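Sequence in, structure out.
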Amino acid sequence: MTPAQRARGSAPVGVVSELPPLEMQVVRYLRLWCDGPEGQAEVWQDLASRLGTVRGAQALRNFESLMGLVLRNARRPLQRHGVACSCFGGDEAAFAQMVSYAHEGHTEDAGLVAALFVTPKVLPVVIAAALRTATSFGTAGGDPFSAPNVVQLRQHRMH
């Protein structure tokens, strides 16, 4: 893969703080998850504190399944920024929008976005996993990600 091909998914397209709450958290979880076991443990701790241990465990299983499907069936390596980076790239934006569309019940739109980064043969399975993930992140009492300052980003200069 050439540097230009890698840059396609990592080129900055926005600022994390301007994302809707759910998409902000999905970008954060994607970054943490891809950082390895310590990051994955942080995802679990965050979900458990927001949703309780039972619902948090289900949300974690759903997210783990989605991540596994996406990473195993990606058209190319999924590009991401560092956990504390204040901007986000194209791949992160597409992944977060896919989950957000699924959360809103727009499964066709979720599929169109997913087609940007996974192979066509797994689209139905990825969409179903995104829907399960998005649904498990929601609560009857409101959106657990709508509280102010849901993402604590360390301030640093990226560019």
